[in-house]
Design a protein that fits this description.
By secondary structure, this protein is an alpha+beta fold. Helices cover about 40% and strands about 20% of the residues. The chain is built from 19 helices and 18 strands. Helix 9 packs across helix 11. It starts with 15 loop residues before the first strand and ends with a strand. The relative contact order is 0.09. The mean pLDDT is about 95. The protein binds 5-hydroxymethyl-3,4-dihydroxypiperidine.
Length: about 600
Amino acid sequence: INAGVDRYKKLSSGHLEPLGTSASGDLIQLKAQTVQSELRIALSARTALFSGGRTLKAESKVAAEKAFVGRVFKVRAVQGRPLAAEKIVSLHSSRDKAISECLLASEKDVRRAGSFDDLLRTHRQAWKCLWDRFRIELEWAGGGNPGRQQLILDLYTFHLLQTASFHTMDMDVGVPSRGWHGEAYRGHIFWDELFIFPVLNLRAPQITRALLIYRHRRLREAREAARREGYEGAMYPWQSGSDGREESQTVHLNPRSGRWIPDNSHLQRHVNSAIAYNIWHYYQVTDDLEFLSFYGAEMLLEIARFWAGISVRNEAADRYEILGVMGPDEYHDTMPGSDRPGLDNNAYTNVMAVWVLFRALELLDILGEERKIEICETIGLGPEDVERWKDITRKMKVVFHGDGIISQFEGYDRLEEFDWDGAREKHGDIQRLDRILEAEGDSPNRYKASKQADVLMLFYLFSAEELEDLFERLGYPFEEDTIPKNIEYYLRRTSHGSTLSRVAHSWVLARSDRPRSWDLFNEALKSDVADIQGGTTPEGIHLGAMAGTVDLVQRCYTEIRLRDGVLWLNPQLPDPLEAIKMTLRYRGQTLRLRVGKD
Ligand code: IFM
């Protein structure tokens, strides 16, 4: 059963139907299937007892009930003589490849498996290979010991590899934001891949490839979702699972007030840009043109068509607009006083849409004439679409207010300032400001208060030069102080209600304010070992925050950039660090790096 999340206790939790148990010789077996998807799961177990290095012949009997099977041994234990019980279990599911049937497969495995010591040896060897590829080592300035930071980085890398590994590559599984064992969010997949893939890309890009193909398999569902809403192309859902349909909740429970609140988070259409960004970056790391040309192109072009279709032309302003969406900041889903869900011209969404259209145009050049014609005919992309894309990349609307502040969305400047000090004094921890305010009959929609980085995500994903180019083409100013000014503005107005927030903020501060960036990095490091959110860590890990934190060391402090077929490094380490050591894979080459202060 699923019973790990208090808030879900009243929801249905039994997902397995027992199909039977059996026992023969030293083997016991059990088979079950999932209630709705009818996925069958089989376990076979072999148990033996040892004493003094020899197998012990012991009386045993099988204990079987519905959905339970065990073997009960009766032995005489002698004081001072160690007795060892060794149980070897094999698990298969009906979706495994290269098997005939899952119960037979598990039986075959368990009969062929060596002893515990043999298995431990191969297990250690497998982890040794993984650590060689994945471990990022910190060297402390002054010869100190980065013990705790190193331990947590290793723990986070371990969790990443428990969730997405060479074993999951062929299994048609995505990367759920709470890993596989966390019950919160019910195994759903969000945009968190954006924080996760960079670590995989530079170490085991074949895993990223498999995860992108997982998205490709669900392209049909994304096309259908776009069609249903009257758009072209493909619209990937904010939350999804098995068949790729939209799984976002339409109401959610505020545990603080006990009330069910309407939930518009499916309007986070920006997940589509994250998928496009991930495709592009996988290609940058690997130069895998075959992937790009087949899987990547279809997804990227269809996402571009979606953005072009959802962009509406405001004739009076001679600008394109994207209306009725949500940005990454989940505190704002509607304008105060409005009964229309969604916000207009979320800066992150609009700029990302422009970036996607740019990449789609570039992609058409990369593909080569034959493939270009083939794919354009297949998806029905004509020269008039391409002209419209170009027009949008010049005329998408971005709203500004004050002195060069990029407005999170249209009308943001009219929201009230929030009394942060007063709220902290009254409630202490205000990370989940949404819950606090709702319980008081208020709403974060009224205030200039964000849950997590939204505008600042642009600075997280792009270099200043890339943004300068984008804004210049759009005809908007992007001055030298645009980035620091906006960081300062939004940082003061963010509660970090998502663990992803500190990762993004630490990143954007890494150049301008290294001590503050380091503090945020250390707070992000605590997310999953200290339950800094007050109660959500037992519901499951935050894989995006974990991988994002590892990536801060990997790409941010070293400033690794992949551009124009070149791997650039421009390190600037935080003061406490002397060096960072790691192994990277870049375009088929293995690079062993030690990035020092100088
Ligand atoms: O994807 C995130 C989102 O940005 C914030 N709430 C939790 C989601 C899953 O991790």
